[in-house]
TrEMBL record:
Keyword DNA-binding among UniProt keywords: yes
Alphabetical keyword list: DNA-binding
Source species of the chain: Ulvibacter antarcticus
InterPro entries: Homeodomain-like_sf, HTH-type_Tx_Regulator, HTH_TetR, KstR2_TetR_C, Tet_transcr_reg_TetR-rel_C_sf
Start-end of DNA-binding region: 27-46
Listed name of the protein: TetR family transcriptional regulator
Domain named HTH tetR-type: residues: 4-64
GO molecular function: DNA binding
Length: 189
């Protein structure tokens, strides 16, 4: 098991606080108090709260981006690609729930090139997802529904999965993957 660096510890503690209270409601003093150190000590490892938020959100965004690239690189049919993307979202939810909460709730607090990078990744991700849906409709794998409605329906469910999943306790992830794929895709085929 890899030992966390001090910066990784700070990001981890802050991510839990951001998830509980929201980015704006958390101060550097709150993060330091939760870690049992003085706020000034945090600045030996990070430049400020914005760096924490950027680190947290961009890490999750890169997970989605690299996951999408992997799905697009496979020579599979659109239905399999959508299944793979649903599973990707579940894996990210399970492994990065605090980061996902920040990504969904606090991304608008990113600044400058970090905001630009995130918005571009999100737009590209959605465009790729939309293209897979359109291809699935064109080849007859999916019902001829409006691609935006399908995209919205799937992504709204998956983007809030972290809220639902944490309330369910120890739901078996394999059951979740199997059932979520089945439920989300039944309306498309």
């Amino acid at each position: 098991m890899k030992t966390m660096t001090r910066k990784e510890e700070i990001v981890s503690v802050a991510s839990q606080l951001f998830k509980e209270k929201g980015y704006n409601a958390v101060s550097m003093r709150d993060i330091a108090q939760a870690m049992g150190i003085k706020a000034a000590s945090l600045y030996n490892h990070i430049t400020g709260k914005q760096e924490i938020l950027s680190t947290l959100i961009l890490k999750v965004a890169y997970e989605f981006t690299s996951g999408m690239s992997s799905v697009l690189d496979k020579p599979t049919r659109p239905l399999q690609k959508i299944e793979d993307l649903i599973i990707l979202h579940i894996d990210v939810t399970v492994n990065y729930s605090e980061g996902l909460a920040a990504l969904n709730n606090d991304w608008m607090h990113l600044e400058n090139q970090d905001l630009d990078a995130f918005v571009k990744m999100r737009e590209d991700y959605e465009a790729n997802f939309r293209s897979i849906i359109k291809e699935g409709i064109e080849v007859g794998e999916f019902k001829p529904r409006h691609p935006e409605v399908i995209l919205f329906s799937i992504l709204s469910t998956l983007r809030t999965l972290h809220l639902w999943f944490q309330k369910r306790g120890k739901l078996d992830v394999n059951v979740l993957k199997k059932d979520m794929v089945e439920v989300l895709i039944k309306g498309m085929i």
